[in-house]
Amino acid sequence: MSAASILQESPALNAQSSRLARKVSDQKRTGAHFTPPDLADFVAQRITAHLTFSKEQLEVLDPSCGDGELLRAFWASIPAQYQEHVTLRGIEDHEPSLKAAEGRLAGLGARSKFIHADFITTTQRFRTPQLFASNGGIRNVETTLPQPRVIIANPPYVRTQILGADRAQDLARQFGLYGRVDLYHVFLIAMAEVLQPGGLMGVITSNRFLTTRGGEALRQELAARFELLEIIDLGDTKMFTAAVLPAVIIAKKRSVAQVQKSPQTTRFIRVYEHRKEDCAQESVAASSILKTVNFGQDGQYTVDQRIFNVTSGQMTIDTSPRDAWRMATANEAEWMSRIDQSTRFRVADLAKVRVGIKTTADSVFIKRDWALLAKTSRPEKAILRPLLTHHDAARWTSLTSSDNLAQIAYPHESVNGKRQTINLEQYPRAKSYFESNRRVLENRTYVTRSGRKWYEIWVPQDPAAWGNPKIVFPDISVEPRFFFDGTGALVNGDCYWISLDPAHVDILLLIQGVANSALMLKYHDLAFNNRLYSGRRRFISQYVERYPIPDPTSKGARAIIKIVKQLNRHPSADLEQKLNRTVEFAFGFRAG
């Protein structure tokens, strides 16, 4: 079923979308997601670079137009002799913004039309004209709204947490998506529905879908429906005040007969800030980072005392949506290929990468000062377990001794290999403590709705696995900080962990050594292409589980394990350099 048909038949979805769009419009009005004029000009120019102008009518749509900045930019990019043949159409749910857009476009003398509505609820009005037999003849049934030949957009960015898990899953099912669905995913599918075959789309969106598991379905849809002309990852350029890392996609819609079923090659540019100490060459001063973003003009540029590395090339987009869209030059792709050739396993083949505990009530479950509570309402010692967080993370070892860690009241145990919630009757002090916080805990209605006890931790993980040797690493970090833990401590939800039984501890150490190496940091950046501000990276399960691991029985792997054992006891810069050389040898980049 098409998105248009779905929306036409879903009044509840329409109402929900309207409420969401109003919330998003409020964000735009405060400037949280407002499109900067220079970025609007950049996107418009990238579209017109692929557009052939003529005296035919050109319908241009911004489905979430705000105060008309993108439409203004597109109008400015059109050669003057063709402007009279262009109609600019904006859809916006926030009426004051819409009136501002109408005023500014009228002031430019542009032919413009505006609709006060939520785009998601209006897509059914964009229909391809159909021919019907009438009294033996053929008549044309016109569309309510003409399908645009160009869409320029900065669709609303509303994450799953704001949508709510239930609504996000509902949207996912209805729009043929899956996984974690953000509202901009839905907008992109809806825009694909209404755009004319052969039409151009230029869109500013979050770069998350390029690499995350939640973006798989969207990557698949875009690769199938569009010829992807340009993908420009603007990374941590801070184009917006909101913490969204933007990407610009320029794409041409295929006809139904042309739906892509094989890989395609796409031009890319990626832009990320570099620390001065990481720069191998002198940077060139520039007034604006967007003025440096041109294909083939790679280099390092200084803008307002920040250094950016600009890289361009061609990327192959496979038909498998599982794979991240790797933005790698030919040399970088060849380098990764050499690693792949020396890879025996991926981390996921050897161990499970788990996120830490998520209590959804940390103030109740986690404390550093349990001893200050009266003994009668302080949970029993067997319930209080040491907890590792990102504050304790360092390379190789924890920064904090086990005696000084925060502690978590952990109401779970393993019985006959299965996780169970403890019986509070057997722990009267824990019962007293949880009862005193019952109101807070019962407010987590999603816990009880799922059939679980009101005092459970939302994501407790497997109690039996905590006692095994493990490596722990923070979700967000400038550099890899994979450290070994053999104390049995639990791990908080701001970190991930990998555990194996003691008989396979050498495999764990091999993973730790590879993950902490300079080679794997470079591989991480190229393969997953997901950086945050100020050089910070995401080390999440779907990336780390794809890390390549050499044959554990090989000479290089055995040498890595030996060095890691030393580093876990006495970290040193010399040993780390030796490790980096050994990892390179294990993957075939250095002679033994």
Structural notes for this entry:
The chain is of the alpha/beta class. The protein contains 21 helices and 27 strands. It folds into 3 domains: 3-255, Vaccinia Virus protein VP39 (Rossmann fold, 3-Layer(aba) Sandwich); 334-351 and 500-592, no CATH class; 354-473 and 488-499, no CATH class. Strand 12 (299-303) and strand 13 form a beta hairpin. Helix 3 (37-48) packs across helix 4 and helix 20 (555-569) packs antiparallel against helix 21.
Write the layout of secondary structure elements.
Blueprint: H1 3-8, H2 11-29, H3 37-48, E1 58-62, H4 69-77, E2 86-92, H5 95-107, E3 112-116, H6 119-122, E4 130-134, E5 137-141, E6 150-153, H7 160-163, H8 165-174, H9 183-194, E7 200-206, H10 216-225, E8 226-233, E9 246-253, E10 264-274, E11 284-285, E12 299-303, E13 306-317, H11 330-341, E14 345-346, H12 347-350, E15 353-355, H13 362-365, E16 366-367, E17 384-388, E18 406-409, E19 412-415, E20 418-421, H14 428-436, H15 438-442, H16 445-449, E21 470-474, E22 476-477, E23 483-485, E24 490-491, E25 495-499, H17 505-515, H18 518-528, E26 537-538, H19 541-544, E27 548-549, H20 555-569, H21 573-586
Largest sheet: 11 strands, mixed
The gross shape turns out to be: globular
- For the termini, the CA-CA separation is 59 Å
**Which CATH architecture of the largest domain?**
3-Layer(aba) Sandwich
Secondary structure class reads alpha/beta
Q: Can you count the beta strands?
A: 27
Unreliable segments of 5+ consecutive residues: 1-32, 129-142
Identify the quaternary structure here: single chain
CATH class of the largest domain: Alpha Beta
Q: How many DSSP helices?
A: 21
DSSP helix fraction = 25-40%
According to CATH, the fold-level topology of the largest domain is Rossmann fold
